[in-house]
C-alpha cells in the first residue's frame, strides 16, 4: 500500500472534526475507505 498523508474535515452536528492521518506501509485498506467507514460507524 502506498504511504500517504491525508486530512479530512467532517461535520457532526455543530462540531467540525479535522483529522490528519498517515497511511501505514502495511495497511490493507486505502486510508480514505478506512476513515469513511470509521466516521459512518460513529455517526450511526
Automatic annotation (TrEMBL):
Q: What is this protein called?
A: Transposase
Q: Which organism is it from?
A: Faecalibacterium prausnitzii
Amino acid at each position: 500500500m502506498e504511504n500517504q498523508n491525508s486530512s479530512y474535515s467532517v461535520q457532526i452536528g455543530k462540531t467540525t472534526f479535522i483529522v490528519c492521518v498517515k497511511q501505514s506501509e502495511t495497511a490493507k485498506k486505502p486510508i480514505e475507505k478506512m476513515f469513511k467507514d470509521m466516521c459512518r460507524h460513529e455517526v450511526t
